[in-house]
Specification:
Elements (H helix, E strand, L loop, with lengths): L1 H5 L10 H9 L2 E3 L4 E5 L5 E3 L7 E6 L4 E7 L10 E5 L2 E5 L1 H8 L7 H17 L7 H12 L1
Parallel strand pairs: 1-5, 2-6
Antiparallel strand pairs: 2-3, 4-5, 6-7
Helix pairs in contact: 2-4, 4-5
Length: about 150
């Protein structure tokens, strides 16, 4: 991923590439709670709110740094099925499939799923655009992960 960040067109999404690479290298895990998904107008399952609970850019005023955090409740090595909330009901969620659908792909590997989420959070930290928008999420996928 670090090599991809240095290449255009991926690099155009971020401000200072050296800082972005450093933040990506420092990404960690934290319990961010249950995944939360809902059904979109077209019937697809999508994240409820901006993040669905997959990751976060945590600003910690005590350490004066932003941390990229991935939800430790997700099995990032497999990313197939997880417990979570769908339309505020407990159930099984397939976040990898949901994210693939969001970027107009039939599927993605667990590694691509994790890479895209880390880049999404890095874009919050040091990006030029809002990765919560569908357009920017799809551009990150196309330019940096696919």
């Amino acid at each position: 991923m670090q090599q991809d960040l240095k290449k255009s067109p991926c690099a155009k999404h971020f401000g200072n590439i050296a800082n972005t690479i450093k933040k990506v290298g420092e990404a960690g895990f934290a319990d961010l709670g249950n995944l939360t998904f809902t059904t979109a107008k077209n019937g697809s399952v999508t994240g409820e709110g901006a993040l669905a609970g997959l990751g976060s850019t945590d600003s910690n005023v005590f350490s004066y740094r932003d941390n990229i955090l991935l939800n430790s409740q997700v099995n990032w090595a497999v990313s197939l099925r997880h417990s979570g909330n769908l339309r505020r009901q407990s159930g099984a969620i397939r976040p990898c499939r949901c994210l693939a659908f969001r970027v107009n792909e039939p599927s993605m590997t667990p590694q691509q799923f994790m890479d895209l989420e880390i880049l999404h959070e890095a874009d919050h930290y040091n990006g030029y655009k809002n990765p919560d928008t569908l357009k920017e999420e799809r551009a990150l996928w196309k330019d940096c992960v696919k």
